[in-house]
C-alpha cells in the first residue's frame, strides 16, 4: 500500500513539474490581440512587475511601475485617429477613466494563463503516459541497451536542435530605443508643469526632447487631470443625492442612453444608481459615435461600471453595424432582439435595435424594413405575447407608439433625441394605461461623439422603479456642464386598478 501511494505521489509530482514548466513557457512566450484605447493592441505578459505601453515610432513609450510580480507589455498598433494631437488627447481622456481598459487587459492575461495552464496540464500527462505504456519490462530492456555512445548521441541531438532554434549566428540591428532610459513623467515635463495625483509612478522613454512632443504630452496630462477631477467629484457628490429609496419589494433600474463614448460619465451613472438602490441597468443605445471597433473602449467602460448589475441593452442608430450589439452580448449584456424576455423584478421586457443601425430582432433576415414597419412588428410582438409586456426598451421611443396605442405595454423607454420628456400617459382602446418616457443623453452629447473633459450639455441618468411586476415610478438626475446636480421629483405611474376612485 505504501509503495502504491509513493508511486502515485511520484507521478503527481512529475506531472506537476512538467505541467508548470510547459504552462510557464507557453504563458510568457504567448501574446493576445485585443482592442485597447481605440487601437488594435498586442498584450504580452512579463515578469518585470511593470506595465509598459509601446506607443509606436512617434510618441514616447510609457511605463507604470509597481504592478506586482507579474507585468505586461502592450504594443499599440493601428488606430483611426485623424491626427497625433487628437490621438494624444484621446489617451489623456481614456486614462482619466481607466477601469474598463485595465479590466480588459487583466481579462486577456487571465485568459492567456488559463489557456496555457490547460495545455500545460495535458502536456504534463504525455511523459507519464509514455512511461506507463512502455511498461517496466520494456523500460529495463531499453535501459540495458543504452550505453555511453547512445547517451552521447542523444545529448548531441538535443544540443544541435537547441542551437538550431537559438541560431546564435544571426544578428539583428540594435533597436533604436535600446539606449534610451526611462525618466519620470515629472522630470520630463519639468517643474513648471504640476503633475496630477496618480501619475507619480509613470515613466516615459524614447525621443521625448522636442518641444512639439512635450506640448502633446502636456495636453494629454491636462486632459487627464480635468476629466479625472470633474467626473471624480461628480461621482463623489452623487453618493449624497436626495433620491427616492426603494420600498420593500421594489426593484430599481438605472437607465442610460446616448453615451456617445463619454466614459467619464460611467462612474457617475453607477454612483447615482447605487445611491438610488438600483440593482439593474438599461442601456438605450448610441454608446458609440459610429459603431466602429475602435470604440470598444466605451463598451468596456460601461460594462465595467455596471459590473454586478443585471443588464439589458439595445443598439442605437449611431451604433451602426453589428459590432456594438455583438460586443455587448459577449460581455454580459442581454441584447434585446424582438423577443419577449424576463426583465427585472419579475417583469417582462421587449426591445429591438434601432432599424437605422444594426439588427432587427427576429426580422433581421429581412432587409430594407422602414422605421414604421419595425414599429408595427414590435407592436405585433407585444400584442401577440402570451403575457403582458411590462416594458419596451428601444433607442427611439417612437418605435413603441403603436404598441402603446393598442394598449399592449405598460411603459416605453427610449432616448435618441438627447432631451428628456415624459412620462406621458397613453390610454389604450380597452381602457389600458401605458406610459412613454424619453431620457436625455447620459454622455452630455451635443453631437455624435461626446469625448471631452466634461459634458458638453446636461447629462441625464434616469431611474425606473418596478413594484408587483409593473413600472411604479420614474425619477431623473441631471449633471450640468458646471458639475451641479438637479434631481427630479419621483413621478408615480398609476394604472386603472390602482388609481383612487371618488
Write up this protein.
It is a single chain. By secondary structure, this protein is α/β, with parallel strands linked by helices. The protein is 37% helix and 21% strand. It is built from 11 helices and 21 strands. The strands form 3 sheets. Strands 8, 9, 10, 11, 18, 19, 20 and 21 form an 8-stranded mixed beta sheet that branches. A 7-stranded mixed beta sheet has the order 1-2-5-3-4-7-6, sandwiched between helices. Strand 8, helix 7 and strand 9 form a beta-alpha-beta unit. Helix 1 packs across helix 3. The radius of gyration is 29 Å and the shape is globular. About 2% of the residues have low confidence.
- Terminal residue distance: 88 Å
Number of strand elements: 21
Q: In DSSP terms, counting alpha (H) and pi (I) runs of 4 or more, how many helices?
A: 11
**What kind of sheet is the major sheet?**
8 strands, mixed
Quote the average pLDDT. Answer: 81
Question: Structural class of the helices, strands and pairings?
Answer: alpha/beta
From the alpha carbons, calculate the radius of gyration and give it in angstroms: 29 Å
List the uncertain runs: 358-367
Overall 3D form: globular
- How much of the sequence lies in strands comes to 15-25%
Residue share in helix: 25-40%
